[in-house]
Amino acid sequence: MSSFEYRGGALHAEDVSLTNLAEKVGTPFYCYSAEMLRKAYTDFAGAFAGLDVTVCYAVKANSNQAVIALFAALGAGADVVSEGELRRALAAGVPADKIVFSGVGKTRDEMDMALRADCGQFNIESEPELAALSEVAASLGKSATIVLRVNPDVDADTHHKISTGRAGDKFGIELDRIREVYAAAAKMPGLNPSGLAVHIGSQLTRLDPFRDAFERIAALVRELRADGLHVDRLDLGGGLGIVYRDEVPPVPTDYAEIVRDVFGDMDVALTFEPGRRLTGEAGILVTRVIYVKESGGRKFAVVDAAMNDLIRPTLYEAWHDIDPVAQPADDAARMPLDIVGPVCETGDVFAVQRDMPPLAAGDLLAVRSAGAYGAVMASTYNSRLLIPETMVNGSQEAVIRPRTDYDTLIGQDVVPGWVTAQ
Ligand code: LLP
């Protein structure tokens, strides 16, 4: 199901015409469908009915306050990886006890802030981090609920830059060190070791790497329990893929079936940290063609969005479907062209030799599946303004983050007097 469909010849977001929205907010802009966000959440969470499960939305995928608040209203917790994300989750109304603090490099200041906020769980990625949290928690007279993030040495079979669970990746603690570290943690002040965490990567389109990793975790739980250690929670991470092109990602119920199979009789509370799956397909990037040009025998559409707005194509060679907002005729001739941004980098490309119907300056395009790792990865490179984010809900529409302005962009810099003194 997509809420981005053609109606009366124009692409709509739910009941809102994207042509009209583009007139109002200007291009480029992000647009999220509240209906699709809600459906993605209820499909995911609903798949685990009957199990003790908390879905902690991975805020990094899309950290707009409206998006976090939408999930919070549906009962979601949050998975955060920085003080900024923690503050966002709290501000959006996520209860502190449903917040998981992940991340390979939490600083002592961040730990201090999270402990004072009574953050529900810390996912520990190394022995030095364990020692630091113990010290900070003990000094505050707090007991931090922790789980150890296991590096299970499983290849997630996804893009190498978003694979996290292979031996040698920077994440987690090696599987065969876990028993020792867990036992040590149980004796450290300020810590309440409660279980394990695993996250093997993102945009997984097959289930067997999950099963592999989960089975390793289950075996480890049995060993820890045999050692007399207390284990009552497992955090199984995120990673479930979405459709960018022609992938057939697993449905949540099949994913949940594996979880039931492996952990169903283990008497553990389960946490999941989905990000992309909840937001990716629920967002598009709308951009306008500035020029169409030909050079070196190739045809280019130069659009007003760029790699600073959506970096995935250039960073991961990621494919995003791109459709004209004005519905092309069924029999419109298609021809290959490159869709490129205005940034002064050869890599500022959204699509290479993509078959598109004829395009002209002024046409609007929708870059699909841009709701995850889109706006959050934006920068102001080339001194371009951060673009607006909008959300629609039926016929309602709202700007959930306005375009920044040049005074703010330039005004943040400080020119010391001695720079220009002769
Ligand atoms: N939990 C942890 C510990 C993570 O590191 C991540 C993602 C997630 C959960 C959420 O994973 P998801 O369900 O979204 O796959 N910028 C990249 C993706 C980076 C993912 C980083 N970690 C991209 O655009 O593809």
CATH class of the largest domain: Alpha Beta
Uncertain segments:
none
Q: By CATH's scheme, which homologous superfamily of the largest domain applies?
A: Alanine racemase
Q: Report the sheet-strand fraction.
A: 25-35%
Distance between the termini: 65 Å
Count the beta strands: 21
Calculate Rg over CA atoms: 23 Å
* Total helical segments: 13
Mean pLDDT: 96
Domain count: the total is 2
**Ligand kinds:** ligand LLP
CATH architecture of the largest domain: Alpha-Beta Barrel
Structure characteristics:
422 residues; alpha/beta; Lyase, Ornithine Decarboxylase, Chain A, domain 1; TIM Barrel; 2 domains; nine-stranded mixed β-sheet; 21 strands; globular; binds ligand LLP
Q: What does the model show?
A:
It is built from 13 helices and 21 strands. By secondary structure, it is of the alpha/beta class. It folds into 2 domains: 4-31 and 280-411, Lyase, Ornithine Decarboxylase, Chain A, domain 1 (Beta Barrel), CATH 2.40.37.10; 34-276, TIM Barrel. The strands form 3 sheets. Strands 4, 14, 15, 16, 17, 18, 19, 20 and 21 form a 9-stranded mixed β-sheet that branches. Strands 5-6-7-8-9-11-12-13 form an 8-stranded parallel β-barrel, surrounded by 4 helices. A hairpin with an 8-residue loop joins strand 17 and strand 18 (349-356). Helix 5 (108-116) crosses helix 6 and helix 8 packs parallel to helix 9 (252-263). The longest helix has 19 residues, at 208-226. 47% of the residues are buried. The model has no long low-confidence stretch (mean pLDDT 96). Bound molecules: ligand LLP. Ligand LLP binds at residues 58, 61, 79, 102, 162, 164, 199, 202-203, 237-239, 273-277, 312, 316, 372-373.
